Amino acid sequence: ETLRFLDIAKSLFGTGNFQTRKQFLVVVPLELDETIAERDARQRAAWNAAVDEQSLNVDYDLRSEIFEVIEALRAMEGCPNSEIEQRLIERGISPIDACRLPSFIAIACTQYQWKHAGIEWGNRYTLANPATRTGYVRLMTDDPKFRAATQIVEALMKNGVHNEAVAAMLAYSPAHNAISRLRDHGEDLSRLKLTGIHLFTDEPLDGELDHETLTALGWIEKKRSKPWWRFW
Hints:
- This protein has helices spanning 5-13, 36-53, 60-75, 81-90, 95-113, 144-159, 163-171, 174-184, 211-216, and strands spanning 3-4, 124-129, 134-139, 192-193, 197-200.
- By secondary structure, the chain is mainly α.
- The strands form 2 sheets. The protein has a 3-stranded mixed β-sheet with strand order 3-2-5, covered by helices on one side. Strands 1-4 form a two-stranded parallel ribbon.
- β2 (124-129) and β3 (134-139) form a beta hairpin.
- It is globular and about 65 Å long.
- The two termini are 36 Å apart.
C-alpha cells in the first residue's frame, strides 16, 4: 500500500506546522582580504558559469531572480518565511514570486537529491489568499518559473562544488527533512507518495477555489457521513 506522506510525517513529527525547517549553519568562506560583497559576486559568477556550462535556455533576468532567491536562502537560513519574502521584495522581486520561488527552488532541489529513491512527487501547487479565500491551483511543471528553477538547481547540483547553495536550498525544504527522517526510520521510500504544496499570500488573487481545494486547505470542514440507520 502506498505510504501517504502527511500520515507518516504526522506520526514522526506530530501534527504541528510542517514549515519548521531543520537548521544548520551554512558558511561561505571569504578569501584573503575579500569583502562579503566580493565573495557574493564571486559566488554569483560561479553559479552563472555552472548554468552556462549546461547551455540552458533560461532568460537572464529570470536566472538573476532565481540566484537572488538562492542567495537569500543561504544568507537567511533558519529565518521565518515572512522575513525571507520581505528581503526578496526589497530586492525587487514581486510579492507573488517572493512567495512562490523559494518553495519552487526547494522542491526542485529535493527532487534532484532524491531522484533515485522512486518517490512519487506531487505536481500541483495551490496559491491562496486566506483573507479572501481566493486563489488558484496549477501544475508546477506548467509554470515557466518552476521549470527554470529546476534547470538551474540541477545545473548547480551537477557541478558538485556549490555545496553551500545546495545545503541552503535543502534546509528550506520540509519535504527533504521529512524524507531524510523516513529513510532513517527504515521506510521504503519507493512506496512514498507526496502531495502537492499549498502556498499562502496576502496579495490580491483572482479566481475561486473549488470545494475540494478549500477542504484540503482546512477552510471547510469535511461533512460527516450519517450512520446507515439514520434517515434524517
